[in-house]
Write a structure and sequence with these properties.
Number of helices: 18
CATH class of one domain: Mainly Alpha
CATH architecture of one domain: Alpha Horseshoe
Strand content: under 5%
CATH topology of one domain: Serine Threonine Protein Phosphatase 5, Tetratricopeptide repeat
Structural class: mainly alpha
Distance between the termini: 53 Å
Radius of gyration: 21 Å
Helix content: over 70%
Largest sheet: none
Shape: globular
Oligomer: single chain
Order of helices and strands: HHHHHHHHHHHHHHHHHH
Length: 365
């Protein structure tokens, strides 16, 4: 039950069984069993809004794996910790822990652990403003896809999302199609994640009918989906609504996303959701409200060191300030955004640097 729970939403039931197992292992002094149970329990707690408990259990298990010199399980433990830190918006910690897990896995010839360490870290590198490292990590993960098949859905979808934003739209669409096909065939729990990437790439490419058709085929059902994975589809649905000029539904869905993510204390996507809500409010000409929400988004991005989100938020703030008649403030926001873009561009792959700069200039004009 504990293991299978990761593919559905019975987290509290799984946690109950896990805690009962934990109590038995402690009572009987079964040290190795205790470490395994701690390890399995830790990634479940973030889904019920208790990431602190996840980190506490993970740290206890980690100390035991180090003491037992069980390096494969140490790497596994670190990978779960990285996932938790990423969800909490603690990007620097997530990246550092993933890198440690990868080093340990490479040292021990543990390809499964190495692939696991690469599955999520690309999103961390990207938010830190290092798309070149993000692509390298995700491409390495895909090369290990036969060893760790979830990468062929999760990581491929994230990579597609990034390539779309860097201007490589055809490649992004192909990757997104492959990710969605693999998720539908092998990993239903990841379908919303992959579908979100596909809808995003379609919106970026201007193919709104295909984006809409995908949303109809893969409906959002948050009560029966892992909250970590369905947010990608919800955010993509907001992007589509904004592209169609449907601002009220976009703002409403953003409120739903924000409420749900905050309820379980997942911070990773808050800046993006706030950015999209701000864009929706701007579309409704509620400029003061848009400025307030985008200022909140900026604070969130700065607090989590999410530079990739930050430049987009600054660009949106500049547009709102311009519409409010604050020309000097608008130019100040644009200047800050250009500085972040210039920094990110130095970390973009050379063959995609020009397309990224062109896309960013369009949003800063």
């Amino acid at each position: 039950m504990l293991l299978h729970s990761r593919a559905d939403v019975r987290y509290r039931q799984a946690i109950q069984y896990g805690e009962e197992s934990l109590a038995i292992a402690r009572r009987l002094g079964l040290r190795e069993q205790l470490a395994f149970t701690l390890n399995d329990l830790s990634p479940l707690y973030p889904f019920v809004g208790e990431s602190e408990r996840a980190l506490e259990l993970g740290a206890e298990a980690r100390a035991m794996w180090r003491e037992m010199n069980n390096l494969p399980m140490l790497a596994d433990n670190l990978n779960y910790a990285a996932m938790t830190h990423l969800g909490r918006g603690e990007i620097d910690q997530a990246v550092a822990i993933s890198e440690e897990a990868r080093r340990i896995s490479q040292m021990t010839g543990n390809q499964w652990g190495e692939a696991f360490s690469l599955t999520w870290v690309g999103a961390g590198y990207l938010e830190l403003g290092r798309p070149d490292q993000a692509i390298a990590a995700m491409e390495d993960a895909l090369r290990l896809g036969e060893v760790f098949p979830p990468t062929l859905a999760i990581t491929r979808a994230t990579l597609a999302h990034l390539y779309a934003d860097l201007g490589a739209r055809e490649h992004a669409l192909e990757l997104a199609r492959q990710a969605l096909s693999h998720a539908e065939a092998k990993f239903p729990v990841f379908v919303p994640w992959a579908a979100g990437a596909f809808v995003h790439t379609c919106v970026v490419a201007g193919d709104l009918p295909q984006a809409e058709a995908t949303l109809k085929r893969v409906p959002m059902n948050p009560d029966n989906v892992n909250p970590r994975f369905d947010v990608a589809l919800q955010l993509a649905a907001v992007e589509l609504a904004l592209a169609k000029g449907e601002y009220e539904p976009a703002v409403s869905l953003c409120d739903t996303i924000l409420a749900r993510q905050r309820a379980i204390r997942l911070r990773q996507n808050l800046a993006t959701a706030l950015l999209l809500k701000g864009e929706g409010l701007r579309g409704l000409r509620q400029l003061d409200e848009a400025f307030a929400i985008l200022s909140e988004a900026r604070g969130e991005a700065e607090a989590t060191h999410a530079r990739w989100s930050l430049w987009q938020i600054l660009a949106a703030l500049s547009r709102v300030e311009s519409q409010r008649g604050n020309a000097d403030q608008a130019e100040a926001q644009r200047t800050l955004a250009r500085e972040v873009v210039a920094s990110i561009a130095t970390h973009a792959p050379p063959d995609l640097r020009d397309s990224f700069l062109s896309a960013s200039r369009a949003r800063l004009s």
